[in-house]
């Protein structure tokens, strides 16, 4: 069976609201051991996707979002 590495990121706001985001791993264990810290955080527009979206389709969307984001970073 083919597997994917996914990481959940939970964000808590000061008003008590929380969101959970699923994506490719942000930090490897080596990065975490080296003391990696978050420098920037961007949110995309809300995407409306079919509720029958497969994991492969989701990862394609994630990859496109990362690619689009990297294209705009100078």
What does this structure look like?
A two-stranded antiparallel ribbon has the order 1-2. A hairpin with a 5-residue loop joins strand 1 and strand 2. It has 74 residues and is α+β, with helices and mostly antiparallel strands. It starts with 6 loop residues before the first strand and ends with a helix. Helix content is 31%, strand content 16%. The chain has one domain. The mean pLDDT is 80.
Brief account:
The longest helix has 18 residues, at 55-72. By secondary structure, this protein is of the alpha+beta class. Helix content is 31%, strand content 16%.
Layout of strands and helices, then pairs:
Elements lengths: L6 E6 L5 E6 L5 H5 L21 H18 L2
Antiparallel strand pairs: 1-2
First CA to last CA: what distance? Answer: 38 Å
What string gives the helices and strands in order?
Answer: EEHH
Bulk shape: globular
Number of separate strands: 2
Query: Mean pLDDT, nearest integer?
Result: 80
Query: Fraction of residues in helices?
Result: 25-40%
Helix-strand makeup class:
alpha+beta
Which descriptors would you attach to this protein?
74 residues, 2 helices, 2 strands
């Amino acid at each position: 069976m083919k597997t994917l590495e996914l990481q959940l990121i939970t964000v808590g706001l000061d008003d008590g609201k929380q969101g959970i985001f699923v994506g490719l791993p942000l930090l490897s264990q080596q990065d975490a051991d080296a003391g990696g810290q978050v420098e920037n955080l961007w949110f995309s527009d809300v995407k409306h996707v079919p509720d029958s979206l497969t994991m492969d389709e989701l990862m394609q969307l994630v990859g496109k979002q990362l690619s689009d984001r990297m294209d705009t970073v100078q």
